[in-house]
Amino acid sequence: MYDFPDSEGLQKITRDIWEHGGIVSSVCHGYCSLLNTRLSDGSLPVNGRKITGFAWQEEILARVDKHVPYNAEEEMKSRGALYEKALLPFVSYTVTDGRLVTGQNPGSAKETARQVVSLL
Fold first, then answer.
1. CB burial class (10 A; 0-12, 13-18, 19+) of residue 116?
2. 64 falls in which pLDDT band (50, 70, 90)?
3. Integer Cα distance of 82 and 100 in angstroms
4. What is the largest CA-CA distance in the chain?
5. pTM of the entire structure?
6. What counts of helices (H) and strands (E) characterise the chain?
7. CA angle in degrees (0–180, nearest 5) for 56-119-78
């Protein structure tokens, strides 16, 4: 999550996949790579879209909240994303919004993969 938001490589891959009609997906802290990704028209692909990723409550419960560089959940909301999370921490939770598929935590990987496959 430290270098994901400003990774030009991840941004280019994401932009290319999205703009060519592909599916963009992430699990856990992977959604941090979407924070600063802009499409060719300058828009943020997360703006106005439902999304999930590792929740701030999970950071606290994992006792890493004082070690991570930012609150990814709040940063995502500040970019206009419609952040969702499971009622209970660390349970599988996946959100699909069109061609954007995200999983909240490592336990969500299997369901996130299933959702991606169902879109293919």
1. middle
2. very high
3. 12
4. 40
5. 0.95
6. 4, 5
7. 30
Enzyme catalytic residues: 28-29, 58
What does the alpha-carbon distance between residue 11 and residue 39 come to, in Å, rounded to a whole number? 9
Residue among 87, 51, 90 nearest 72 (CA): 51
Return the residue matching tokens 């990814």: 72
Instruction: Name the β-bridge partners of 94.
Output: 103
Band (30; pLDDT cuts 50, 70, 90): very high
As to burial, measured by CB atoms within 10 angstroms (0-12 exposed, 13-18 middle, 19+ buried), residue 16 is: exposed
Q: Which residues lie closer than 8 Å to 119 by C-beta, 6 or more apart?
A: 23, 96, 99, 101
